[in-house]
TrEMBL record:
This is DUF2124 domain-containing protein. InterPro entries: UCP004962. The lineage of its organism: Archaea, Methanobacteriati, Methanobacteriota, Stenosarchaea group, Methanomicrobia. It comes from Methanoculleus nereidis.
Amino acid sequence: MELKEQLTGVPGMLRPFKAYLREAGLNEGDQVVYYGCPGTCTPFIELLGFAIRDLPLEQVYVPYADEAAAKAIRPVKGVGMQVSDDAVSVDPKVIILMGGLSMPGVPVEKEAVQAAVAAHPGAKVVGICFMQMFEKMGWLDTFDFDLIIDAAIDPVKVWQ
């Protein structure tokens, strides 16, 4: 895998994500399934979901790698995309692995994520992380990513 381009800011993360999905040969109703950590990954998943809200795809959130707990991601008028209480079955055409899954101390093992990915042969695998987390944790050698978006939150400035 080689570096395709280097962008900045939130649009730098969202635009290539949407472009990739637009060009992925997906059909109406195909599932994009995000696997991530509750709380920390969820806001980013909802942001990504908002970026592709006009694509005719079904969006699903899976906490960690627990597909039995999968929830639909739905638009909420005046708010954006939100994880709902609606349980859904998982049949991804695109799997989105969020970098929070690879962080130390997260209560999911890499092997559980590997098993979830392996359960859906033929699904494309996209990785979205911050601060080289997949690289630092050895996930680049573990997963056959079709696309990786690695964003930076640096520097963080605080005024008071």
